Amino acid sequence: MTAPGGISVSARDLTRRFGDFVAVNRVTFDVRRGEVFGFLGPNGAGKSTTIRMLCGLLAPTAGEATVAGFDLRTQAESVKTRIGYMSQRFSLYEDLTVEENIDFFGGIYRIPSGRKRERKEWAIRMAGLSDHVRTRVAHLSGGWKQRLALGCAILHEPPILFLDEPTSGTDPISRRSFWDLIYSLSGGGTTVFLTTHHMDEAEYCDRLGLVYRGELVAMGSPRELKDGFPVERAEGIAPTLEDVFVSLVEGMDRAAGPVAEVRG
User: Fold this and answer.
1) What residue ranges in the chain does DSSP mark as E strands?
2) 198: helix, coil or strand?
């Protein structure tokens, strides 16, 4: 099922409160099919809370959202069958081998028996782990764990993939290789929604939502954001996304005044 107009993910005034603390405050956006959409912001900005709501793992306090055309509030189980989700900790079982992890996720996603072997072999090749299928995951490098976790998350070939800070703690070469895989998935029509606090990674996204204190403060392509928010730089030096984000945050902080309490 595909959402009308080629929209894979849609949120309207999506909100999540924990007691008196507002973690996500009336966030609204659309993500198109096949798009690489990034949620960029510092730790504690509300990125992971948003992604957990969109995956059906956390109920919204207010607002509404659809994922793959299904309503999060009334059709959360249907949403879960059409997404892949990779958390910051890679969602792997470190006491199991590479092969055992893939077999486990294949069962969780109820991949038909006729497809299991083919998808398993694909995941092993994609992760570059053909010589390590019986190696315990605890003994793998960060880059290998990252690629294996991605393979497990998309064994069932979901149309939408959610990645929560997927390159956290990995080296630059592994990060570059991982982005090549993301581009390949996007090119095949998979929608990729990811969170990151790496400003350089944000440049790789088709569009970005800049998030601060639970609010979506700006949205657009990297070029649109840099062109649309003038930043003072030395003559001849183009502004970076970091310049834009810092400028927006400083402006919001000045407008808000002193913060009595900061909560994570």
Assistant:
1) 7-18, 21-32, 36-40, 62-67, 70-71, 83-86, 160-164, 191-196, 207-212, 215-220
2) coil
- The answer to whether residues 73 and 89 belong to one domain is no
* 8 A C-beta contact, residue 92 and residue 38: no
Distance CA(206)–CA(203), nearest Å, equals 8
Res 256: pLDDT: 72
pLDDT 10s digits, 59-95: 999 999 999 999 999 999 999 999 999 987 767 999 9
Within-domain flag for 64:
yes
Picking from 138, 36, 46, the residue whose alpha carbon sits closest to that of residue 97 is 138
In a domain, 100, yes or no: yes
Determine, yes or no, domain membership for 103.
Answer: yes
Are 69 and 3 spatial neighbours (Cβ–Cβ below 8 Å)? yes
Last residue of some domain: 126, 157, 188? 157
Assign 218 a pLDDT band (cuts: 50, 70, 90): very high
Which structural domain, as residue segments, surrounds residue 125?
85-157
Mean of per-residue pLDDT scores for the chain: 88
Cβ-contact 163, 86 below 8 angstroms: yes
Give me the residues paired with residue 71 across strands: 66
Return the closest-CA partner of residue 89 out of 143, 165, 158, 198. 165
DSSP for 91-132 reads T--TTSBHHHHHHHHHHHTT--HHHHHHHHHHHHHHHT-TT-
